[in-house]
Amino acid sequence: MDQTPERRKRIERSLATSDKLEAEARAAAMIGEHKAALLATRPRVELTWKHALEPGREHAAPDGGKIVATDRELIYIGGNGSILRQEPNGGRAAQTLVRNEKVGDSNWRFAEAF
Question: What is the pTM of this model?
Fold first, then answer.
């Protein structure tokens, strides 16, 4: 079971020396591992792309036409088959990750500021 840093027991290890410089040299690897573990648990924000409509599909438009969604673009097609306009299919999104797991919904409106 993973424990949060606040709940972990304090671990003390003997470095088997009374020489301060030697003790620091021996402890350096353990300190590095500890700092890497702390960094891995820190939440971080990752920028990604959030689609407004599912790509690779045709969607019904409110005016009776069609919307073709690609990975990055929405193509609006009128009732007569003409292309009315094109616009981005979503935008950049900020996703919060903890230990490489998503912990919240992407917010692409927030990410526009990045």
Answer: 0.52
